[in-house]
Write the structure tokens for this entry.
Amino acid sequence: MSPNPNREPQSTVEVRRDWLLRAGMGLGTIALADVLHRDRAFADQGIPSSGILNPTHHRPTAKRVIYLFMAGGPSQLETFDYKPLLNERQGQPLPDSVRAGQRLTGMSGNQATLPLAGSIFTFKQHGKSGAWVSELLPQTAKYVDDMAILRSMTTEAINHDPAITFLQTGNQISGRPSMGAWMHYGLGSDNENLPSFVVLITKGKVDQPLYSRLWGSGFLPARYQGVQFRSGKEPVLYLTNPPGIDAASRRQMLDRLKQLHEVQAERTADPELTARIAQYEMAYRMQTSVPEVTDLSTESQSTLDRYGDQAKTPGTFAANCLLARRLAERGVKFIQLYHQGWDHHGGVPGGMRTQCSETDQPTGALLEDLKDRGMLDDTLVVWGGEFGRTNYSQGKLTADNYGRDHHPRCFTMWMAGGGVQGGVVYGETCPFGYNIVENPVHVRDFHATLLHALGIDHERFTAKFQGLDARLTGVDPARVVSEILKKA
């Protein structure tokens, strides 16, 4: 290309500046193309979503989650972690070499001795996997080949409130979004007439308190918080019309209220106003959808019998498990069941019999029901509490009675369906059931794995909070426990 005869000669500095400018633009184009290529590659692997992740980071194996949270800390030594050595050394003090100076709670830390306590319940191996399960859980044991049993869960909190808050929100300090809120934020909703995140609590249980912040939205917009369904005539508080107000009047009132909110939103740009409008509209639609989904009388007698006698009593764990299946069928993304009463500092044998009699049959029935309907393949079911229990007795140890204190060092959870590899027992604790000796799974690892099943990369799934990119798994290392997932 011949030079322009009318162009004035450029200095060396100008030539260099011009070259760098053009080269920089070229390098920027290359970088942009690389980013777009990678984003397109990720997008090709995901699926469409009505949440902020559209599409998801990768193709999910689970469309929804049913989380059976056993509040209070069920004993792993009476359920899934068989330790015959404790029976052999019944009453002997916990060896200092095993404890290794680990902290204790104030409830047993001042005991003169810490006598080892073996479980009075028998264990048997079940399924092709040969997983050990206590006699307390005969119905759950039928489905061990559909489960990945995590016997090496570990947490950092030793008391209930921070431990439950940690599992539900990824942080021991309150104020962060709950798991269900994160799911709703990221994945949106599959049913515009029902909440994407529903909470069910077993009625009549008195134990460690549960707070609405456990299913709150934290710093995310309020519309992502969980909606608690209750037993009784009014499953959702304040949903029904007051006396003298019919559906037409309600609709007219909401239309006018929406107009006022929109005017105010234009003035203030307050996102809470938009959220409030959306919540009012959802409530109006729920006036029809909620009574329908909570009406268990439409279920067959054989289905009710499967879940047990208590399935006919609203608010029981059995009824809530059946309701969870109905909600899952209708596109609810995250269904959280809380069942209190597992905090057995004393009277472990009697307490565990009661708790397991209330939960074992409904849990097995839920898994069977989901399998029969072809839903277990894309429904992730989770079972577990906030921590485990000690291998020594809190309080007096007798031949047929003992207590167990909090033990964050190791506990057991299980996951089933939704891309989980069934028949897996992952992780191992020492023969004393006090320390993890193989494949620890931190609470953050559990969160990362749950997100992964839903098509979400936990490191890339963030929300702005106080100028930082906050995420469910926090800033400390977390890994997806790929060993328990089916191979692609």
